[in-house]
Structure formats: C-alpha cells, structure tokens
C-alpha cells in the first residue's frame, strides 16, 4: 500500500476524479501514508529545482510579484470605498478647483507608492508559514487558485497552535500545503476541524481517514478509496464509507478504488448482503460497563462525564409504554456488570477500573466482551504463562512458545466460522492451520 498510494492519487488527479476520501482503518498507517506522500513530493520538487537551475527561483519571484500586486489592488479598493478626507471650508475657498484636484491626485499617488513599498518589503521578507506554503503546484494536488486565503489560514493556525503547540513545519501541516490531510480519532480536534474546513472549501483534495468520516460528517467526495485490508472492513462499513463517493449537484456518478485489498475480499464486499440489525439495550454488556467506568475515571471534566453516563442509564431508550421498566432493567444489569468487574479484579469497590481493565476494553472490538474477559482471566490465572512455558522454556524454544500462544489467541479473537459440512481433510495440502484444533482441557477449564 505504501509503495503505490502516491501513484494511485496521481492517476485519480490525471483522470479528474479528485477530491478523494481514502479510508484506512489503521490510524498509524494513515499518518505513515501521508508522510510518505509528502516526503516523496518534497524530494521530487527538490530534484526538479536542482535540475532546472534558476527557473524555479524565477517562478517563485513571479508568484511573489503577482501576490504583491493583488494585495496592492485590494488595498486601493478598500481605500476607494472610504470617505476621503476633505479640506476645511476656509482652505477650500483659497484653492481653485484645479488645485484641489491636483492636491488630491498627489496624495493618492503618494499613498499608493507607500503601500506598494510596504507590501514589496513584506513579500521579500516572507515569514516562515509563507515559505512552508510556497510549493511548486506541479508537486501538489492543489492548484494555486484553490489555495486557502491567508486571513482564513491565520485564524485556523492560531487556533491550532493554542491547542497543540505544533510548529509550522509539522509533517501533517506540510501535507496540507500539498493537498493531503489526515483524519482519525487520535488527532487533535483543532487539526481535524482545519482538515474538514479545507476539504469543504476545495483547498485540499485528498483526505486519508479511518471510520471517523464514515458517519456524521458532511464531507462528500468524487472518489472513495480503500487502502489495505482490515477485519473491520465489513460489508456494512463498506456501504457506509462508499456512500461518500459522488457529490450532490456536482457529480453524476461516484467512483470507488481499492488498493491492497484481495480480489476475493473486494468481490465479497460488493456482493454480500448487509448485516441484519437487531435492537438490544446495550447497558447489560459487561464490556460497555467497563468502558463507561474508564471514560468517567480518566475524563478531564469528571462532572460532565458523570452526567453523560447517568443519562445513558436514567433516560429510557424509547418513549413507549413500559419504557420505564426497560430503564430500570438497564440499571439493574449495569449494577450486575459492575459486580462482575469487581469479582474479576477489573474494578475496585468504588467502581474505579484497576489492573487489566484497559486491556479488556481495548480488546472488545477484536472479539467482543466474552473474548476480552476470557483473555484477562487467562492472564490473571497464569494460564498463558503456563502455555508459553515460562522464561526458561521460552529461551530454549521461542517459536514453539509463540505458536502455542497464537493458538490460544486464535480461539479467542477474530474467529471465522466454517459451514458444518467442511472437514479437515479438505485442507490437507495447505501449509496453514485452517481449522483450529480444540483447546486443551487445562485452558478450556479456565
């Protein structure tokens, strides 16, 4: 994926299929792909500048002159709209009409020369942000006429610096000047707001994101790309993400591109029916109770976090007859879940998460509440240590210990059920362990 991500976006730009939202469900890979694109474009721009000699500098000076002349015209228009200062009545009587006109023209000309000199000096002494934004449009996905205005950028950059303290040469900011943004839940809110604003204003053409842009954010694009395979890429998630392709009122058709996704997975995503949805009040889930306790314990604003958790438990899920009974059942189930966490050593008597609570909450997406709780139980009981054989046995045979540990983990997380008619004899020639053997009794009993 890293090798061909830039050629993919270049092909989309050549075929006029930008803007594009590229979904990559690994947050770390999102940033790595953006940095690879930026570093490659910067290296190509530097090589072109050295090869062309003074041509690049000539283009930069011409660009600065055009910008300076544009600023001069803007200042002249603003001054023309203001009321001109007039002479007092006694002075007007002493000057003829021609003298007043010449005096006015001289003042205007002098002011124009002063404005031009001041703007030229400011352009020659560009600040650091101007130098970072001054990129060759041949090595960017955004043309010069689609750049964000400096006034708007100053507002967003001040907001971003106050929140994060990022320097102007931060890699993710350098990516913005090349027309590439990143969007996932681990990034600061101020940076994500800047990315969303620039994408809606057509100031960036590519956004590499996780599921954060699949629902709830108005960022339609012409193309949606899927970068790399992931167990989280389900038919339901694919339909939701692919729905971003095609802008209402702009495009007759939307495009979907795949990179690094096996053809069998692509065919499955395109043809599989959507997952059936079944309503269930989720407050009875032990894993959800654990995540709510973690949220309340580590929130900066404890009072607001407590209020949000209370609203989930105290507010009936539906305004229908008997809804108050459901709400009461949810509170009882939540109390039962907290007692379970206390017995398993994941919470203290004050319902604060302790021990391996963070590990159990993080593993919820991989296998559900049962798998994460089973994994924590195996760790606390020492079963995983006995499976691996201890430090001495691990040093003697590290591959065997790793295989035994992987065998247990495969039983717990991301299991794929086979049809009942599948037999082990169907996979005799395969070098991989396709069908898992049963767990040992000492592990299953835990």
Give structural notes.
The protein is mostly helical and 446 residues long. Helices cover 58% and strands 5% of the residues. It is built from 20 helices and five strands. It has a five-stranded parallel beta sheet. α12 packs antiparallel against α13 and α18 crosses α19 (398-412). The model is unreliable at 83-90 and 121-126 (pLDDT under 50).
How many β strands by DSSP?
Answer: 5
Strand content: under 5%
Low-confidence stretches: 83-90, 121-126
Q: Work out the helicity level.
A: 55-70%
Gross morphology is elongated
Order of helices and strands: HEHHHHHHHEHEEHEHHHHHHHHHH
- The tally of helices reads 20
- Biggest sheet descriptor: 5 strands, parallel
CA-based gyration radius = 31 Å
Structural class: mainly alpha
Mean pLDDT: 80
Q: Reading side by side through the largest sheet, how are the strands ordered?
A: 2-3-1-4-5
N-end to C-end Cα span: 41 Å
